[in-house]
What we know:
The chain is α/β, with parallel strands linked by helices. The protein has helices at 41-58, 75-94, 104-111, 119-129, 139-154; strands at 2-7, 12-21, 24-34, 63-67, 99-102.
Amino acid sequence: MIILGIDPGIAIVGYGIIEYKNNSFKVLSYGAITTPAKINLSSRIKSIYDDINTLLTKYDIDALAVEELFFNKNVKTAIDVAHARGVIMVACSNKGIPIFEYTPLQVKQGVVGYGRAVKKQIQEMVKIILNLPEIPKPDDVADGLALAICHCHSSNHSDIFRA
């Protein structure tokens, strides 16, 4: 099973692609899709869509694990992130890739085993679980990998997370 984990954003989309076979993980790729703040929103969204499609063409993705939209106070930021999240989901849907959504609490539980874990704990566990030499940067990349790990740990119950 090859999983694409996505931490959606408009400035930075963190992603991680892992293969999960026989209860072991193999990292295939990870990184960040970035868009400059000085270009208009539609250009940023198109750039994200195009870069996601490049990943989908390069890797035979079996499932997308994406973070559910969560925001506290800044509605404008939430709307921009929702646009990015939408084009990511459309790109995967167009390729027939099943989409699964996870809350931050579920990701923490799935990676650390504790729903109130702090970001540093999640990052350290991503590094350990995937046998990486260092914690992936920026934080969004580690979050993308954490989403992929969470999906693998939740795959026996995946129908309840399907979008």
